[in-house]
Amino acid sequence: MLHYIGKRLLQLIPVLLGMTFIVFLIIRAIPGDPAQVILGQQATKEAKAALRASLGLDNPWYIQYVNYLGDLLTGDLGESMRTKATVSSELWPYLAATFELALFAMILAVIIGVNAGIVSAWFQNSWFDYFAMILALIGVSMPIFWLGLMGQWVFGIQMDLLPTSGREDARNPVDPITYMYVVDTIIHGRFDQLWDVLKHLILPAIALATIPMAIIARMTRSSMLEVMRSDYVRTARAKGQNMFWVVYKHALKNAIIPVLTVIGLQMGLLLGGAILTETIFSWPGIGRYIYDAIGYRDYPVIQSGILVIAFVFVMINLIVDILYSFIDPRIKYD
Amino acid sequence: MSEMAPNATIDVVIKQDQSVGPWREAWRSFKKSKAALVGAVIVAFFILLAIVGPFFVPEGINDQVLKNRLQPPSAEHWFGTDDFGRDIFSRVVHGARISLWVGFSSVIGSVVVGSMLGIIAGYYGRWIDTIISRIFDIMLAFPSILLAIAVVSILGPSLQNALIAIAIINVPNFGRLIRSKVLSIKQEEYITSAKAIGMKDARILFSHILPNSMTPVIVQGTLAVASAIIEAAALGFLGLGAEAPTPEWGKMLADARIYLINAPWTMIFPGLAIMLTVLGFNLMGDGLRDALDPKMKN
């Protein structure tokens, strides 16, 4: 196992280098003069020269890349052109907000998706099966930004049930410790704030969860159908075991393995989807941070935001691969 | 009952076998799936809408009638009007042309480049395979929308650049698919025979390997059109795709956001159009997969 983990970590090195190179290109490959594009048409010669110097654009590209890698290794993600603060110092609150949202979305997607898949397979070809699978198909076809807007309109504006933007009630702000507000309100024992924070989470989490939920439901159903036809499940049923236990204890144990891979993959994809959800719900996460940076042509923030999400995405995939080999001993890595 | 001569029986069997070719078999299987047929009808409808729709809509896409701004749906304006008094129905119909154009052309671009790279990697192997496969790994290490944002950040926001970005992010998916197919096909006896009779690599690649690798590409391509349409709309929504006044569905949704309270119809119809088109391609793609390549089902 250690050999496998070591091998996967070694394989990661060229991928991480390639990722940093693509992100490095974001400024350097801009057609024409990057300083002109970043600062706009009105920029003075001095301002452009100063920006070129600060970004090291006057050096040959390979020197720039080596310097960029050196900066990354020391945790220097550059400086925001808008706020003038270092990106690494600004990043954590945004990242924590995105983690909280992605985690809640994934919890929703797994609980609903897995159970819908199980019940659909259990009662194959029933009205529930058809209904759930049609919903799942609509779910995978749904643009999440539209779903988010519809959610705001129906539950926020028409029914006035849930807040439509932000993370908290501005009149009752959370005192941040970890910047994951659910955790922070629990630490402070402020359960009135916890309820408020959870209400703010519901709509964006549902919007973000829809696609993974649909994919997990479809995957669970097909995996369960395969397992339910196997001899050991038939034997358990022939012995007169309660059907609920046959499904949830015996069948699910084997059927869940491919579903776990999908769950891991979707967790990474949620980070990509967060940019759209956070934009709609004004959720101050890393997606929103990148979106705002695009508007201000704040290239160091765009670069570092994309790099951080891609890095987390790669790490989640690595952890899923390693966990997979623990969960399914039939898999032999060589 | 008359007896049939043995030769006649063989003839009948051979004729029956010939009548059920692989494509006909696939079509039979496709037809059996109601969901796939519904998908095909939806796709056909939107393609027709994209081609002829703009000639029949009541108003021009950019006709501004400010006294009619933010009118709810009515007999005159089926989908209502937007903040410039433009007819949303006309703009949604024109938007079909843009979305399908981006969807198809970006996927064709991805298929062409991905197939070339996949074939070269799979057929020649060794260092060239390692390099191409690592490039694919690196590209797939990014969530697709982020890679698209990175590409558009470099090229600048426009519909054309969004199309290029979407084509680029889908290249590794097709490249990997073709590569794995080529790896299995190149072990087949007919490829060994072709090499033995001195056939050139280019002819083997394009006459034998490529046509035999296309089935999964057709399936994946149909599903990729669906995701390309969503990605183009997402880029438009983020302000990185089509620019005003182009009636691109994602851009229309972005513009509608501020009228959510007073004029929700400005948001409902473009979103519905995206969802229905994508649903159509997904249903059709699922049906094609089951008909052409059942092994891909899970």
TrEMBL record, chain A:
Kindly give the InterPro entries that the UniProt entry links to this protein: BPD_transp_1_N, MetI-like, MetI-like_sf
Question: Where in the numbering of this chain does the ABC transmembrane type-1 domain appear?
Answer: 95-324
Q: Which UniProt keywords apply?
A: Cell membrane, Membrane, Transmembrane, Transmembrane helix, Transport
Give the CC-aspect GO terms.
plasma membrane
Cross-referenced SUPFAM superfamilies, in alphabetical order?
Answer: MetI-like (SSF161098)
**Pfam families named in the record:** BPD_transp_1 (PF00528), BPD_transp_1_N (PF19300)
* Sequence similarity: Belongs to the binding-protein-dependent transport system permease family.
Q: What's the protein name?
A: Peptide ABC transporter permease
- What species does this protein belong to? Viridibacillus arvi
Q: What is the lineage of its organism?
A: Bacteria, Bacillati, Bacillota, Bacilli, Bacillales
TrEMBL record, chain B:
- Cell location: Cell membrane
| Annotated source species | Viridibacillus arvi
Q: InterPro entries from the xrefs?
A: BP-dependent_transpt_permease, MetI-like, MetI-like_sf, OppC_N
Entry keywords, A to Z:
Cell membrane, Membrane, Transmembrane, Transmembrane helix, Transport
Positions of the ABC transmembrane type-1 domain: 96-285
Question: Which GO terms of type biological process are on file?
Answer: transmembrane transport
Q: Look up the record and report any one GO term of the cellular component aspect.
A: plasma membrane
The membrane topology term of the UniProt record is:
Multi-pass membrane protein
- Which positions, given as ranges, span the membrane? 35-57, 98-123, 135-156, 217-238, 258-281
Q: Which family does it belong to?
A: Belongs to the binding-protein-dependent transport system permease family.
- This protein's name: Peptide ABC transporter permease
Task: Specify the domain of life of the species encoding this protein.
Answer: Bacteria
